Amino acid sequence: MSKNNDKYRQQRLGDNRWINNYAIGELDFDDDKTHERNRYPSQQEWTEFNFVSFGSGSSGNCAFLGNQNGGVLIDAGIDPEHVYRDLKNNGINIANVKGILLTHDHADHIRYAYKIVRENKHMRIYCTPRLMGGLLRHHNVSRRIKDYQVSIFKEISFFLAGMKITAFDTSHDAIDNMGFCFEAGGKSFVIATDMGIITERAQHYMSSANYLMIESNYDLNMLTSGRYPEYLKARVKSEKGHLDNKVTAQFVATHLHDNLKWVFLCHLSNDNNKPEIAVQEMTDAISQAGKSVGDGSFAPIEREKDIQVYALPRYDTSTWFVLSD
Fold first, then answer.
1. Which strand ranges, in their side-by-side order, compose the sheet holding 163-169?
2. Closest Cα partner for 73 from 160, 150, 1?
3. Mean pLDDT across the chain, nearest whole number?
4. Hey, is 294 helix, strand or coil?
5. 106: number of CA atoms within 13 Å, CB side?
6. What is the rounded average pLDDT of the residues 289-307?
7. Pick from 204, 197, 208, 311: which is nearest to 258 by CA?
8. CA-to-CA distance for 308 and 295, rounded, in angstroms?
9. Quick one: average pLDDT of 259-267?
10. Residue 6 phi, psi (nearest 5)
11. Quick check: 248 and 265 in contact, CB under 8 A?
């Protein structure tokens, strides 16, 4: 790609910072620092993913993914003091958290995004221009949040915190919903939450993941007989709502492969689900497909199982996972 084409591409996408600093492509590097920012870590440099969820559900969502040198936050719906404390307790300096990736603009995913970047001015918010437009329509979100944005685009990969990251389309009733595929050290960690159906692109990324965080929101029987009004039940079950335990379990069982090692169930409903139900549904489906299932406890007998299944807590911080299998 010529420098003239680069200049045109920058103007067309409308965000020079993103093109110059973060995009993957045949860019002409003007200096060593730019090359270093875009350099993809080798197998030897990246040996494991560190993953933790600080809360998962309609009360708030936020997770960390990276390694002991730092990483990123996915969503920002949990009190920052909770996040800072648990990162520090596990040896991660907030100064080494490079940014926040947003999946969509619902309050339980973005509530504290501006507060976090305002307190940590080295961090940026990574989202599409459409998603930022959705944030700016929230009456309780500061318009200054735009100053911290780096624009990303679905299916156009970028590098951040040593990982190659690709956003992909998901189906939900918010603005420009997306999941993320993180690649490093020859492994991929895919995060897909808040989905009414599994889109073609979500299937593409999730079906080849080594580690998968996927929504398992509700048990159909509990939802049907529960206290939700009919319009809300219809919304949850719609193509832009949430995923039923059985749908999630059957998807994973249908797309099993030998390199899938962990399944993290996220965004479980407080009213229409229970962790034990979601885990059992997934365990049964995987077992029927011929794989053994561990409980994610790291107990010696469980570690020998083919796939680990773990339901992320709604209000509490999960286990700190060091994933290298």
1. 158-160, 163-169, 178-184, 187-192, 211-215, 262-266, 307-311, 293-294
2. 160
3. 88
4. strand
5. 18
6. 95
7. 208
8. 6
9. 97
10. -60, -45
11. yes
Work out the number of other CB atoms within 10 angstroms of the CB of residue 27.
16
Exposed, middle or buried: residue 227 (CB in 10 Å: 0-12, 13-18, 19+)?
Answer: exposed
- The tokens for 256 are 């099993």
Helix (H/G/I), strand (E/B), else coil: 233: helix
Contact 67, 46 (CB under 8 A): yes
Host H or E run for residue 263:
strand 262-266
* Structure token digits, residue 233: 């039940």
d(CA 292, CA 305): 5
Burial state string for 138-160 with b = 16 or more CB within 10 A and e = fewer than 16: eeebeeebeebbbbbbbeebbbb
What tens digit of pLDDT does each residue of 43-63 get? 447 889 999 999 999 999 999
Strands (E) located in 61-157: 62-67, 70-74, 97-101, 124-127, 149-151
Q: Which of 289, 237, 235 is nearest to 263 (CA)?
A: 289
CB of 154 within 8 A of CB of 168? yes
Q: How far apart are alpha carbons 287 and 293 in whole angstroms?
A: 7
pLDDT digits (tens, 9 = 90+) for 109-162: 999 999 999 999 999 999 999 999 999 988 788 999 999 999 999 999 999 999
Asked if the model's pLDDT at residue 199 lies above 90, the reply is yes
Ordered by where they begin, the domains of the chain are 1-39 (no CATH), 48-323 (3.60.15.10)
